[in-house]
Amino acid sequence: MRFQITTSLALFSVFVKAHLDHDHHDQIPFDHVRFPQDIYRTRHGEVTADSVFSGITTFAKLPWVQCLTRESHVPFDIAFIGAPFDTGTSYRPGARFGPSGIREGSRRLTLYGGYNVPLEVNPFNSGLRIVDCGDIPVTPYDNKYAIKQIEDGHKSLLQREAYSPLGNDSITGQKLLPLSIDGKNHPRIITLGGDHTIVLPLLRSISSVYGPISVIHFDSHLDTWKPSVFGGAPSDQAAINHGTYFYWASQEGLIKNGSSIASIFVLKSLPLSAILPLHSPHGAIRTTLSGLEDYENDDNSGFKRIEAREIDTIGTDGIIKKIRETVGDRPVYLSIDIDSIDPAFAPATGTPETGGWSTRELRTILRGLDGLHIVSADIVEVAPAYDTNAELTTMAAADVLYEVLSVMAKTPLGKTVVG
Ligand SMILES: [Mn+2]
Questions:
Q1: Which biological process annotations from GO are given for this protein (predicted)?
Q2: In CATH, what class is 71-414?
Q3: pTM
């Protein structure tokens, strides 16, 4: 907050002074690219419409910081970063343009200021320093190398210390303690994909700071397929793709207790409350299968499925309840495949499946995660080339992330007792 207010006031006063001196025809200050939100205001300080369609586009017109290179010393609380990788797709490619597409779709998020009415928070004005770090450089010629680039880029951001101190619990007044294994207060990263393969290197990074973690996964597909089933695994590298990355994440122990096959089988017959710590929930599942053994394999990878069609009977409240019961109050990583939304609302994706949730339903469900400790998040599989002229998909992706950002802004990443 200190940062945003002082910057805003400083630039605003420069702007007003320029107006007083010359009245009009001022050259836009060079800083307008860096702080577009602050510059595009009238002399009375209102945000103007041209502030959102002019200039170079960052996510929600947030300040661009070159976090991976010359400005690696600039601290932040939440960073958006692109991972433009799509050479792990099975059907329609194009998600390498996801980061730039989502940024385009996000331009209008702050036009009216950005206050989230149902969550009663303005994430852009919440005291946190939120930045757009641009994209991780990703080669399109070598998947193994690209996956390492994504892991290293994400780690480089995540392993820093956050800008703002954690502070105290708003109810008890007790000092909040970080959730990380090194006891430091780390920033949160929101990654713009990219196809879903990127979650393997992202979880490798997450695990370096938080250890094995529960994942809340919204997708029409399982993504825990064995490589022999999904893609046939003609080579080691082909075995790692956007349908198998959770299988590998589970094999590597990156997902909480995901590889604990025996425990899961034993505990499956117990009431839901008894299996709380063991599962990560998938939401919006509706894919066809090679057979029911795909579900057995999914169980063994540590996931609990919530089928897309369940919304017809239990509604959004029921879906939220299931997710919250599954993850408890543990730290979670959130991965959102845009194909969890129905192609009527979000057609621009690599492997669309009809019968999905509406954008409104997914946004409601995400707001229902309010209070959970979401350590980082991503949205993947946005392939803008298949979008409508009205930018339906990139707008949906941006709005979904706005809910995630709002939930993050409301809940500090700390507890009074770490367990
Ligand atoms: Mn997926």
A1: putrescine biosynthetic process from arginine, via agmatine
A2: alpha beta
A3: 0.86
